[in-house]
Amino acid sequence: MKIVIIGAGAMGGLFAARLAAAGEDVSVVDVWAEHVETIRTQGLILETGEGEVRTKPAAVTRVEDLAACAADLVIVFVKSGMTAAAARSAQTILGPVGRVLTLQNGLGNAEMIAEVFGADRVLAGTTAQGATLIGPGRIRHGGRGDTHIGRLTGPVDDFCREAAMILSRAGIPAIAEDAVQSLIWGKLVINVGINALTALLRFTNGQLNDHAETRELVKLAVAEAVQVAAASDVRLPYDNAVEKVLAVAAATAANRSSMLQDILRGRATEIDAINGALVREGVRLGVPTPVNATLTLLIKALEKQQGICG
Ligand code: NAD
């Protein structure tokens, strides 16, 4: 399977390195010229607990430079604010029966890609893998866990199973799943409860459990998310969402959430795809979401205060 990854940052770099090390035909596209040039000249280095994995996937800054490519699978791993641009790029390189996979966090990424290719050609899901971009050409593998892949519409098919098998063979354990919306929402609710609050308070995930006030804020934000999920006819993959979110915060106690990391690095957050998307869904479905609306405005104000263009 010919694979192209659009967005070769932390996660795209991790997947590219694992797939290339397993001998798969994988190329990366990233707008960051220094990163691409480093991959091209010195290779892509993945730091793992067991040492470094060095590979040299084809790397370009402009998708047109892969024009003759006809990819079977394009994996979109940009931040959610760039998904529409990445989907347009994918048009240049996706083969006639190829599909586009998103494992990004937040709501709406798969739907944005579906606007370009049609829902039938979109695969979506979640991944419990984690990674950090250390610098040009260098990624650190963080948390490990399962990746779930399904079709945006309809049950899994052979293509889905093959994509999951290729990832698993490359050391990214993946499972083909029917209920992708349940998984996407399951991860969304956790991000709704943890990301904005940790970014506003500059807390590690575990610190949310340390105070009655923050436990209450998690509860209020997550309760709205549960109501919006129910109004969307989505069944969450766990019964007690508040307990689940606080358990995840405890299990990842030392971690800085991606939103906190973005704020600390002066980068745009994914607030519009997380709490902001929940608010938009709430408006559409007539479910009030005042807590998430407030969290969204506070993060946007914080971005502006730090000179971050959203
Ligand atoms: P990142 O910022 O490290 O990487 C994104 C990359 O996309 C950057 O290198 C950037 O230069 C590139 N990019 C931006 N616009 C582009 C465009 N138009 N075309 C090509 N490249 C472009 O982000 P990340 O941490 O890898 O996160 C990617 C997605 O995966 C997010 O939705 C995130 O929530 C999700 N995710 C991240 C982790 C993690 O541990 N980092 C885990 C699970 C899911």
SSE order and pairing:
Elements: E1 2-6, H1 10-21, E2 25-29, H2 33-42, E3 44-48, E4 51-55, E5 58-60, E6 71-76, H3 83-93, E7 94-102, H4 109-117, E8 122-127, E9 131-135, E10 138-141, E11 147-151, H5 158-169, E12 174-176, H6 180-201, H7 212-231, H8 241-251, H9 258-264, H10 275-285, H11 290-305
Parallel strand pairs: 1-2, 1-6, 2-5, 3-10, 6-7, 7-8, 11-12
Antiparallel strand pairs: 3-4, 8-11, 9-10
Helix pairs in contact: 3-4, 6-7, 6-8, 6-9, 6-11, 7-8, 10-11
The structure holds nicotinamide-adenine-dinucleotide (NAD).
Helix content: 40-55%
How many runs of DSSP E, i.e. beta strands?
A: 12
Helical run tally:
11
Hey, roughly how much beta strand do the residues contain? 15-25%
Name given to the CATH homologous superfamily of the largest domain: NAD(P)-binding Rossmann-like Domain
Question: What is the CATH level 1 assignment of the largest domain?
Answer: Alpha Beta
Largest sheet: 8 strands, mixed
